[in-house]
Amino acid sequence: MGRNIKADTSELKELRERLEKLANDAQVQQFCESCSKKLAALLLAKVIRRTPVGEYPEDSGKKGGTLRRGWTSMTAEMAAIKAEFLGGSGATSKFGSQKAVYGTGALAENVSGFAQSLQVKKNADTYTITVQNPVEYASYVEYGHRTRGKGGNPGTGWVPGKFFLTISEEELEHIAPRVLEKKLEAFLKEVFNET
């Protein structure tokens, strides 16, 4: 006794095609690079807000904010020019009346665009983006430093570090799994919902 069973396998074939598309190396690499840039943008937003701004007397001629602006500058000189041009934290830009508050305003909101310009390096299954601050004294503010004495006297003590990057990295480690899960979910929906 036998029975002939007919089954419509067109949906299975469609699923197979979509899975093959998902396995497309270029598409997966693009997704991984997108995830890397998203995490870099989140780190930059956190670290910029947390980076201290030097406060100087008006008559000193010094402007604060060079270290904070360094996160989106390719060189320390560019960060200093930005600090001079825009002034300290919250200075009004010459391009209009909108405040250029780095860390709590314009820059923090636009770091995603800067992160998109960062180069992603792939080594085996690891994707890397280097987020750095080219300002020479960044590591001293991050980790702390000894102070020099005046007139040849020995140092007078230790200035504790602010750990603005370290704390931001730790925060990012906690939220990264949720961020990546959301991006993966959106990616899979895109792959499986295409017609």
Task: Write structural notes for this entry.
The protein is mainly α and 195 residues long. The protein has one domain (21-132, 167-193). Helices cover 52% and strands 7% of the residues. A two-stranded antiparallel sheet has the order 1-2. Helix 2 runs antiparallel to helix 5. The chain starts with 9 loop residues before the first helix and ends with a helix. 19% of the residues are buried. Mean pLDDT is 81; it is low at 88-104.
Helix/strand order: HHHHHEEHEEH
Number of helices: 7
Shape: elongated
Number of strands: 4
* Termini separation: 41 Å
**Which band does the percent of strand residues land in?**
5-15%
Main sheet: strands, sense, barrel: 2 strands, antiparallel
- Residue ranges: pLDDT <50 for 5 or more in a row? 88-104
**Secondary-structure class:** mainly alpha
Using only CA atoms, what is the Rg? 25 Å
